[in-house]
Specification:
Length: 258
Amino acid sequence: MKRYIYVLTVIILLAGISEGQTVRKGFNFLSISDSADTIVTTVFASGDVKGLAAGENKEELATNGALGVSMAIRDILITASINVATTMDTLNNTFSNIILNPSNGSGLRSGLLDFRKKKIFNNFNLHMYATVSTSTWKIENEIKDVTVGGIGVLIERALISNNEENEVTLSYELGLSVRTLMGELASNEEKRLRFLNTKNSVFGGLEGGMTIRVNNLIASLQFYYFIGDHVNGVTGGQLATGISISTNLFSFKSKYED
């Protein structure tokens, strides 16, 4: 409980530093630069709470605070962030949350790179991401530092998008994603069997989700269907929920030259 209080305090403090529009994961494409020769760079702070909501394994919630930077140019937005505080430093016996959401990993040892392009065809947007984290896994008397990587390629579409008095969006996305174990757990089958009861080091399949955003508050519902040998809380259908608060620390504009 003390960990949650600490991380949530960090989140509240970061959220109170400044106010302004946000342009990052779950962002509103209306926030993107509307000038062909201008790059908008934003440094932001965010905090979120994520967990598995359904499936065979409901785990402890992951509470995180992150710092990041985004760059918007024309119809493209690139965002990078790194965790600075988390409650997921040491995982005991259940590890599916960190596999499905690697960016939930240890502070200063996990991060996310996010790429979005507006309207690649009709009103559909392209969303790609790469994420990696290292966290401490513990089972009985054995402790390992485990690195997990993930990539995803999805198509996104906004159902509701309003940027008048309040920024309100409702969007959904669908695509493919992959998660892979790295380091000793990837190369040592015996360790994988002990920690995850599987010989597999790579998991992949469908990923889809829905995001609701009201100003700086973002609520998300993400569904995963990873195929392969059974791994509790990873393969088969898994539903993850999350809520996050984000705020700009500062931003600036610069000229873009081809």
